[in-house]
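Exercise: predict the fold of this chain.
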Amino acid sequence: MPDTRTGELLGTVIGDLVAGIRERREPALADEPDAVHQLRTSVRRLRNVLAGFGRYVEKRPARELRDHLASYGAVLGAGRDLEVRAEDCRRVLAELGRTDLEPALVAPLLAAHGGAHAVLVDWHASPDAVALDRLLEQWAEDPPFTHRARRPAGPATAKVLRREVRRVLDRAADGETSHEVRKAARRLRHVADALGEAALASAGKDIQGRLGDHRDALLLAGHLGAAGAPAAVIAHVETAASRTLDGLPEALAALREVDGS
């Protein structure tokens, strides 16, 4: 990497991420297993890389692409969140031996997922989809970099990674919501993954995963309460939610150790 410029490295990363989005689209539209999740993750990866390297890309074009990706991610997320909740609900009911409750608690989630997927399919025929595809093509072929992108990649990427680590640790230390810590950890994971920094990516993934599991459990408990599930089922989920955070201090400590702070 000594002779590589930041723009060269970032151009390759962006091109790969755009290709990933394109490759995962058809399986997602066919609603193949885990395909929407994979596409949504690819969209988030590109958004997070653009945010992490915000000093190396032109602000206005980057903001435009990130806004379009955010809208796309929201459409993808509507169906994916319902899919996860249905899977988690079915698992909990199996654990408790209450599969008799599936028609009341799982079936509505699956029906809502079907509707959300239909919206996703329709979205791909919309002007928003055309605009996003145009932007993706432009960025894949000729990303709008700033003068900073001419700098050597090694020192630049090290600075980016340090900033991403600090974002996670600062949010955790300042008592910000777990939602903010989770988003910061996800961004660290995606940026580190793009740069081949496995240790930092793993640390970010660990924190993101714990907080994500906590969020999913709370959302499931909310669904169960609204659907009139037995108190024992709701209590089981709430107990599981609290357990997901048990290892969070250790995960943050591991990140500090990787960072050397």
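Check your answer against the key: The chain has a mean pLDDT of 95.
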